[in-house]
Amino acid sequence: MAEATRQVTVALGERQYTIDIGRGLLAQPARLQAAIKARQVVVISNEVVAPLYLAHLQAALKDRQFAAVTLRDGEQEKRLESMLPVFDEMLVNGFDRDCQVVALGGGVIGDLAGFVAATYQRGVDFIQIPTTLLAMVDSSVGGKTGVNHPRGKNMIGAFHQPRAVLADLDVLETLPDREFLAGMAEVIKYALLGDREFLDWLEANLEAVMARDPEALSFVVERACQNKAAIVAADERESGQRALLNLGHTFGHAIEAALGYGEWLHGEAIGAGLCMAAALSERAGWLSPDERQRAETLVERTGLPTRAPGGIGSARFREFMARDKKNRGGALRLVLLRGLGDAIVTADYPAAALEATLASTDHG
Ligand SMILES: NC(=O)c1ccc[n+]([C@@H]2O[C@H](COP(=O)([O-])OP(=O)(O)OC[C@H]3O[C@@H](n4cnc5c(N)ncnc54)[C@H](O)[C@@H]3O)[C@@H](O)[C@H]2O)c1
Ligand SMILES: O=C(O)C(=O)C[C@@H](O)[C@H](O)[C@H](O)COP(=O)(O)O
Ligand SMILES: [Zn+2]
């Protein structure tokens, strides 16, 4: 029997929206038409995803003024310049402020398309159709949009919530293993930062998730979205607890930028970043060696990196970390673990623990 569609609500008052998680969603024209209501629609996708899934949207929205922009693939394309052809297409076709932007792709397309929507004529609606595990469990939800700068990840952007998120699990069938694994880093992140029960479940069911078992997968996407929706609803613009969603990211973003965008996938860098945050927490005396090992073992079992690549060096790590958006008054704020499932954002950790954690990356 076909599984029912699961729904998670992001409770943001007048900007409230739902995340539909199910199978065959893209093959249901009525569902697409209900989610994408505008007369003028521009779909932003890339050269990998568009040939696979754009036709569903074209068919369902054939009574609309429809435009599609297909960008090149990869994290290195998440930059300001890539937005220009989209704006050109919208302007040439006379798109007005009632139009809707649809992101059809992974986190790169979602972040960029969201930022296009946030800035086109000072802001238009957008819909997220995530096509990677990472985008389904994290990037399509919460309204962080933006692009990278060579000096730092996501340095240019805006908070702009989508109107709806449609996560069709069927599209994960074409997702390569490496990209699927990248999504697992963010899944593990939720468990470590605040969901102990989910951590136990993941440890027991990791093989099923990795084998993309349908039940396990829809549970993981729903649970991750529930976790994210609760945090975003409580702190939409990251004045407090939303920063917990950055567990592993101060290190991970430094790895991505230092290596050059796309060298390591975001999720790969976050895998190593989670382990570095756990190691620092152990050095600070907050996590027991067993707890630290438990976190690292879970990351290791997915096949994601548990160590930063050698050769970046403490000084370069610090250079990128100094620009992290969580920093205040020159103090480097990190998301660390007081226990498994219990993260905090703090600048109050032993300097020597950070030094040792960065020094440990110099392993050649
Ligand atoms: N806004 C947020 O809250 C948030 C959260 C987490 C990550 N991010 C951002 O998301 C980005 C990473 O996202 P990602 O891991 O999805 O990477 P991605 O968007 O680059 O997608 C990964 C790869 O999979 C391909 N692909 C996508 N869907 C496919 C499908 N169904 N079948 C076959 N191939 C497919 C893409 O073309 C790409 O090559 C990073 O830029 C990161 O900073 C943002
Ligand atoms: O939604 C959030 O908040 C997150 O931090 C989710 C992260 O997984 C994501 O990578 C986000 O883009 C990082 O945001 P940034 O503010 O550190 O750039
Ligand atoms: Zn992330």
From TrEMBL:
Keyword Amino-acid biosynthesis: yes
Main location: cytoplasm
UniProt entry tagged with the keyword Amino-acid biosynthesis: yes
Cofactor annotation remark: Binds 1 divalent metal cation per subunit. Can use either Co(2+) or Zn(2+).
Alphabetized UniProt keyword annotations: Amino-acid biosynthesis, Aromatic amino acid biosynthesis, Cobalt, Cytoplasm, Lyase, Metal-binding, NAD, Nucleotide-binding, Zinc
Residues given in the record as Zn(2+) binding sites: E186, H249, H266
UniProt-listed Pfam families: DHQ_synthase, DHQS_C
Listed pathway(s): Metabolic intermediate biosynthesis; chorismate biosynthesis; chorismate from D-erythrose 4-phosphate and phosphoenolpyruvate: step 2/7
Record EC number: 4.2.3.4
GO molecular function, one term: 3-dehydroquinate synthase activity
GO cellular component: cytoplasm
Residues involved in NAD(+) binding: 73-78, 107-111, 131-132, 144, 153
Any one of the GO BP annotations: amino acid biosynthetic process
Cofactor dependence: Co(2+); Zn(2+); NAD(+)
Protein location: Cytoplasm
Catalytic activity line of the entry: 7-phospho-2-dehydro-3-deoxy-D-arabino-heptonate = 3-dehydroquinate + phosphate
Domain 3-dehydroquinate synthase N-terminal residues, every copy: 69-181
HAMAP family (UniProt xref): DHQ_synthase
The family this protein is said to belong to: Belongs to the sugar phosphate cyclases superfamily. Dehydroquinate synthase family.
Function comment: Catalyzes the conversion of 3-deoxy-D-arabino-heptulosonate 7-phosphate (DAHP) to dehydroquinate (DHQ).
UniProt name for this protein: 3-dehydroquinate synthase
Name of the encoding gene: aroB
